[in-house]
Amino acid sequence: MLARRDHRDHPGGGMFQKHVSDLGALDPLAFGGACMNAAVRAVVRVGIFTGAKVYFVHEGYQGLVDGGDNIQEATWERVSMMLQLGGTVIGSARCQDFRTREGRLKAARNLVKRGITNLCVIGGDGSLTGANTFQAEWSSLLVELVKTGGVTAEEAKNSSHLNIVGMVGSIDNDFCGTDMTIGTDSALHRIMEIVDAITTTAQSHQRTFVLEVMGRHCGYLALITALACGADWVFIPESPPEDDWEEHLCRRLIETRGRGSRLNIIIVAEGAITKQGQPITSEDIKNLVVKRLGYDTRVTILGHVQRGGTPSAFDRILGSRMGVEAVMALLEGTPDTPACVVSLSGNQAVRLPLMECVQVTKDVTTAMNERRFDDAVKLRGSGYNLAVMNVGAPASGMNAAVRAAVRIGLIHGHKMLAVHDGFDGLAHGQVEEIGWGGVGGWTGLGGSKLGTKRTLPKKYLEEISATISSFNIHGLIIIGGFEAFTGSLELVEGRGKYEELCIPVCVIPATVSNNVPGSDFSIGADTALNTITTTCDRIKQSAAGTKRRVFIIETMGGYCGYLATMAGLASGADAAYIFEDPFTIRDLQVNVEHLCEKMKTTVKRGLVLRNEKCNENYTTDFIFNLYSEEGKGIFESRKNVLGHMQQGGTPTPFDRNFGTKMGAKSVAWLTGKIKEYSRHGRIFANTADSACLLGMRRRSLVFQPLAELEEQTDFEHRLPKQQWWLKLRPILKILAKYKADLDTSEKAHLEHITHKGVPAEANI
User: Fold this and answer.
1) Catalytic residue numbers?
2) What is its EC number (predicted)?
C-alpha cells in the first residue's frame, strides 16, 4: 500500500508512505500465488528507493480491517531472501468483514490514521473488485468517519482520495486483460514435473493416465499442459467436446496405440463440462476408457501441489517488473486517476482500467454459464513438401517446435521432411520423411532430436540446392540460434546463383543466449534462466550457515548479457557484469565496497554474476581474486562456472509452449507464402519478405524479413544492436540498493481492454 503525504515534495507526486498488501481474500483463486513475493519485494524496494516509507499489511483485507500489528513498516532487509519462496510471506486470508460497509469503515480508519492514500493490491478479480469498491466509497467513508468521530476533519482532508493499482496473482491465468498472471508459470512448472514423472511409468506399464489440473472456469493450465506434454486429449470448460466425444476419444486412443505408443495421456480441467453443462470428471473418463477399451487406466488429481513450490524465473521477473510498474503508476496518480491493473501484453507492461478487466472476466464466466461456445474451425490441406531442421547449439524447446511444425504440417496435408545435423545434413542429403508418430513424446525432451551443428551453408550452396531439388522441398523451417540467422542470410544471398534456393524460409530463434535479432525471447533461454536461478538459490542457501560469503558465478551467453542480467534479477544478485554495460576497475571497487557495507547488515551473503565474455581482461578469475583480496577479514569469496549445464535439462513449460506456438505459426506462414509464390506448379520466391524470422516483438509474434534484421545486427559480437532487457538493469541495481536512474521513457499508459479477433492459424 502506498500513502502520499505532501503532493509538492516529489516530482512524481509528493513524499510517499508505501504499503503493500497481498489480497486474495475475496477470491480463492488468488490464494497462494506462486510468486507474489517477487512483486512484494519490488514494491518495497522501489518504494524505498523513491524516498518512500513502506508498510506491510498482513493477512490481506482482514489485516486492513483489524489494523494494529497487521500493518507494519517494511525495511530493505525484511524482503531479502524471499524471491525463492512460494506463496506470500505477508499472508493472505478470506475476509467476510470487508464485504460489509462496517468492515470497510474500519479499514478506511486504519488507513487514514496512518496517512495512507495509495493502495497496491495483489490478487484475483474478487480482491480487485473489493479494492475498486473501496475506492468508489472512499469519500462517503470519510464523511461517515468524521461524523462518528472516527477521524478528525484534518485527517480526512489529508486523505481526501485513494489511489489503487492492482497486480493479478492467480495460477489459473483467468483474468482478462493480461497475457499471464503472477503464479501461472510456476504452477505449470509443478504440473510438468509431475506429468514428466508419470509419463515414464505409463510407458513402462502401457497405461492410460487421466490427469486433473486446476481450473474451475478457465482451462489455461489444462490446455498448455496438453500442448507441453503432447497429450492425446484435453477437456477444458471454455470448449466442451462434441456430443459424441466418447466415441472420438476412444478412437483417438486406439489410433495412438496403433502407431506404437505405449501410453495415453488425457488432461482434464476440474471445471470441464459437456455442451449441456454437465460436469466431465476424471473418474468419468477413466470408467469410459476401462469399460470400452479395457486399458489399464489411472487417475491423478494434482490438487494444491500446483500452488506450492519454488517460483519459476519467469514469475520472479514478472512479479518484479509488475511491482516496479505499480509503484510508477501510484507515483503518477492523481485524485482523478481511476483504479488500474498492471498487466502483461506480449513482453510489455501495460495499465488497464481495473473494472473493465474485472467486467470482461465476469462476462466470460456468464457466457460459459449460458453455454455460448464457439464452433471449431476446420482446416483444409494444401499438399506441399516442408523441411524442418535445427542449426547451432542445442536449446531446450527445439523439439517442441519441431513436433508442432511436423504435426500442424500434416494436419494441413503437407509432407513433412526432417533434416538431420543442420546445414551439413541438408548438404549431404540427410533428409527423411517424418510422420505423426515420429515426433511423439518430443515436447518434454531437451537437446535436439534432429541433431544440430554450427556449420554455415555458404560453401555448400551447390550441394544444398541439389538436395532441395532432389527432395522437391517447397519451404524450409530453420530452428536455431545466431548460426541459423546468419546461415539463412547466406541462403538468401545464394538465390542469385541457385534458383533452387528461391523457396520461402522461416527462421525460429532457439538459443540459450537469447542473442538473435528480431525477437525479445528465444526458445531455450527460459530453461537456461531457470537452471541458473535454481543453482543460485542453492549456492546462496549454502552460505546461510557460514555467512559473510560472496559468490562469483559465470554464466553463458557469448557477448550477450541476457542470462546474467535476468538471472541476477530473478535471484537477487548484487551485481551482474555484462559486455553491453561496460565497467571499469572503479566499478569493481564500488561493488566490493558495497558488499563490505552489506556485511554489516543482517544480510551477510553476496551474489555476483559475470557473463562469460563481458570483458577479456576482467575474467572470472580476476574478479574472484580481486574480491578475495579486497574482502579479506570482511567476507570470503567463492566462484562457480556453470558451463554447459545451462544448455541441458528438461524444457520449462514456457519453452515448450513458446516452441509449440512458434512451430505452428511458422507452418501457417509458409503455407501462405508458398501459395503466394506458386506459378504454374513452380515456386519462385526471391523477394525480401519470402525469408523471414518469426519473433516476439513487444506485444506480438511477427514475421520480419531477414534483410531488415541484418541492418540491426552487430555481427562481430553476434548481438542485436538494440536489446529490450537492458532497460531492466537499473531495476536490478535499485533492488540491490545501489543508486541508479530508473528508465521510465517507455512507461505504461492507461489503456482500455480490447477484444481480440482470433486469426485462422490460432485455431489449428
Assistant:
1) 172
2) 2.7.1.11
